Amino acid sequence: MAVTMQDIADLAGVSRPVVSAVLNGNSKLKVAPATRARILELVNKTGYVRSLSARILNGKSIRSVALFVNPDYILIYRELQYQICMYLAAYGYRVLNFPIVTPKTESEILQDSLQFGVDGILSIDCLNMVRHEDIKIPLVMLTHGPPYSEVGVDHEYGGYEITKHLLQHHGHRKICFIGTGLNWQPSKIAGFRRACSEYNIAPDDSPLLDLTWNAGFAEELERLIRKRGITAFAASCDYVAVRLIGYLDGLGIKVPGEVAVTGYDGDMYANSGLCRVTTMCQPMAELARVSVEIMMDKINRQLYRPMEEAV
User: Fold this and answer.
1) What is the spatial distance between Cα 248 and Cα 253, in angstroms, rounded to a whole number?
2) Backbone angles phi, psi at 139, to 5 degrees
3) pLDDT of res. 309
4) How far is Cα of residue 214 from the mean position of the Cα atoms in its chain?
5) Please, is 207 exposed, middle or buried when counting C-beta atoms within 10 Å of its C-beta (0-12, 13-18, 19+)?
6) What are all long-range contacts of 285-288, with beta carbons under 8 Å and residues at least 24 apart?
7) What is the pLDDT of residue 308?
8) pLDDT for position 311
């Protein structure tokens, strides 16, 4: 038989409204810390589960956070989603996933999520088409970093360190940055350029190769190696790195024997090619932890109200 809120109240020696105040974040009724701790302990011990449907119908908080993410986006974000779910669960929050397939649907899906009475919204590279000031509940944007979001990875530092690895530890002096959509990689490229500059590498010896809509990439790639003497490639992501290694192998160019290739992200692709790829790992667990902590702080500040009477 399911445990009810009244059962928890009887075991704790308090009234049902007191239990409700603790579980629902009702700040109009002040509950002594010891009483609150006793109620929460009984909730955990008895396995009490609040009725989700009843809370939705009553317009109450369901201790849930909406997670917006593009389902077709890069693989590394799947790990980020998992880590976010784990950290939110540790705080006793559910995650409601709302995939954003196209930016045009953002506003509509946002309104759908609010109907569930979510306590906050976490967005991974989404909600760029809506006015954030119109969202009245806690919102945390992540991955790009300031000023686009509150939490993000320093890709300039990452691009710098992975390039410095090729320069300092392997002695390469002719390096190419290769990737898809280089217009979307300004921070990584800035780090690449900074590292090359520190080693007095001229731009002509550190070219950029964009694979996006580049029908002549094959000829350009072979020219970089055969005629310009490029000996290393810093790839924009692990997927590009693995595909590049396979392509070079087809040309009879061995990696790492003749040409070095590094990746970026630290996802499953780094170990899925002809050889393991040296890569710059993104700190997904840390990114998730910080994002969730900011969310919890925002939720707690929004829920806080002056207390009236102690129990």
Assistant:
1) 5
2) -130, 130
3) 39
4) 29
5) middle
6) 285/83, 287/80, 287/83, 287/142, 287/143, 287/151, 287/152, 287/153, 288/80, 288/83, 288/84, 288/86, 288/87
7) 41
8) 40
Cα–Cα distance measured from residue 34 to residue 44, given in angstroms and rounded to the nearest whole number: 16
What does the block give as tokens for 249?
């192998």
What is the rounded distance in angstroms from the CA atom of residue 66 to the CA atom of residue 82?
14
pTM exceeding the 0.90 threshold for the entire prediction: no
> Half-sphere exposure of 144 toward its Cβ, with a 13 Å CA cutoff?
15
Nearest to 265 by CA among 175, 205, 185: 185
Q: Is the pLDDT of residue 50 over 70?
A: no
Strands in the chain per DSSP E: 64-69, 94-99, 120-124, 139-143, 151-152, 175-179, 208-210, 232-235, 260-265, 278-281
Q: Which amino acid is at 155?
A: H
Distance in Å from the first CA to the final CA of the chain? 29
Residue 254 neighbours by CB distance under 10 Å? 13
Q: How far apart are CA 127 and CA 110, in angstroms?
A: 8
What average pLDDT does this structure show over 266-293? 89
Closest by Cα among 83, 174, 176, 170 to 124: 83
> Mean of the pLDDT values across residues 60-73?
77
Q: How confident is the model at residue 310 (pLDDT cuts 50, 70, 90)?
A: very low
Tokens representing 93 are 């929050």
